[in-house]
From TrEMBL:
Keywords assigned by UniProt, alphabetized: Amino-acid biosynthesis, FAD, Flavoprotein, Methionine biosynthesis, NAD, Oxidoreductase
The family this protein is said to belong to: Belongs to the methylenetetrahydrofolate reductase family.
Co-factor requirement: FAD
EC number in record: 1.5.1.54
CDD domains linked: MTHFR
Top class in the EC scheme: oxidoreductase
Catalytic activity: (6S)-5-methyl-5,6,7,8-tetrahydrofolate + NAD(+) = (6R)-5,10-methylene-5,6,7,8-tetrahydrofolate + NADH + H(+)
Molecular-function GO terms, alphabetical: methylenetetrahydrofolate reductase [NAD(P)H] activity
Domain of life: Bacteria
Name assigned to this protein: Methylenetetrahydrofolate reductase
Keyword Kinase: no
Gene: metF
Pathway where this protein functions: One-carbon metabolism; tetrahydrofolate interconversion; Amino-acid biosynthesis; L-methionine biosynthesis via de novo pathway
């Protein structure tokens, strides 16, 4: 099923992100964890991709497996850093053959192990979007950054570039994680003013361990509001309480988004079905409204 036909309906939906195994020896263990998230039967599942193609076979295997076993639509991430157009066409053919109908088109970041020229054939995700549209048959999404992508000088420049991605054929956007909903509302207002009218799906990351915070800030550059820092300080010494507090915080963010008119929320569930399931259960009546 095409994601573009799932988003935008007048009903709250939750989708989850899972990651594929990095090595073949981990395949069964990581697959079981990702399948545990799929068993919750969210609106759809996105499956990440190792920039430079390091997980390409496993991304596809997990996405195909989820669709076949659980009947849940998937969106396969695809990065273009270091890729040739031929290799992208091959990936798209493999996806089509596997029954995948949705692609999240990403630039990616140069992996440490990659020693070639990273931006030879593709410089930006918008160029990948153009190749996917040219290939045909996929619903195409892209990433966006409420707290500004680190390579951009400022928000205005970032949004001008985002518009190029949407003009190339990107049908919906998923945001980088954020922990203060006002950042998202402000971003969407600016995006709409710039003439971008596709759905902007908020990405919510439940923080259930203090140790996740440093990595999250390093990877995303997003700010932690005082309210959240206080919660972490209060509960970080007790694993079970910290997990519960993180789930409640993420649930409250989703509730506030829905109360403010947002219909589709993407949860960075990190292959943890207990966290994904708890958030789903917290919202079960609203999800079945
Ligand atoms: P782009 O849209 O190309 O933007 C990158 C930078 O270039 C921005 O600063 C933008 O403003 C600028 N830019 C864009 N177009 C132009 C232009 N025409 N002229 C000048 N500047 C321009 N990474 C992975 O490796 N695997 C994943 O599975 C993955 N999934 C992700 C999912 C989501 C929802 C998000 C938010 C990020 C994900 N990432 C993933 C991380 C992503 O690859 C990085 O953030 C990367 O640095 C940027 O990718 P992009 O697709 O947003 O790039």
């Amino acid at each position: 099923m095409k994601i573009s036909s799932i988003v935008g309906k007048d009903k709250l939906t939750l989708s989850f992100e899972v990651f594929p195994p990095k090595t073949d020896s981990d395949f069964e263990k990581v697959k079981e964890a990702a399948f545990g998230v799929a068993a919750i039967k969210p609106a759809y599942i996105s499956v990440t991709y190792g920039a430079g193609g390091s997980t390409s076979t496993n991304t596809l295997a997990i996405a195909k497996g989820i669709q076949e076993k659980y009947g849940v639509a998937t969106i396969a991430h695809l990065t273009c850093v270091g890729a040739s157009k031929d290799s992208i066409i091959k990936s798209l053919s493999d996806m089509r053959d596997a029954g995948i109908e949705n692609v999240l088109a990403l630039r990616g970041d140069k992996p440490k192990w990659f020693d070639g020229e990273p931006f030879k054939e593709y410089k930006y995700a918008s160029e990948l979007v153009s190749t996917i549209k040219e290939f045909g048959g996929f619903s195409v999404g892209g990433a966006c950054y409420p707290e500004v992508h680190p390579d951009s000088a400022n928000r205005q420049e970032d949004i001008i570039n985002l518009k190029k991605k949407v003009d190339a054929g990107c049908e919906f956007l998923t945001t980088q994680m954020f922990f203060d909903n006002s950042v998202y509302y402000d971003f969407v207002e600016n995006v709409r003013k710039a003439g971008i009218d596709v759905p902007v799906i908020p990405g919510i990351m439940p923080i259930t361990r203090e140790s996740q915070i440093e990595n999250v800030i390093k990877l995303s550059g997003c700010k932690m509001p005082q309210q959240f820092i206080k919660i972490v300080d209060r509960f970080k010494e007790d694993k079970a309480s910290m997990k519960q507090a993180g789930i409640i915080y993420a649930t409250q963010q989703i509730l506030d988004l829905y109360a403010n008119g947002v219909k589709n929320v993407h949860v960075y569930s990190m292959n943890d079905s207990s966290v994904a399931g708890a958030i789903y259960n917290n919202l079960s009546d609203i999800l079945s409204m």
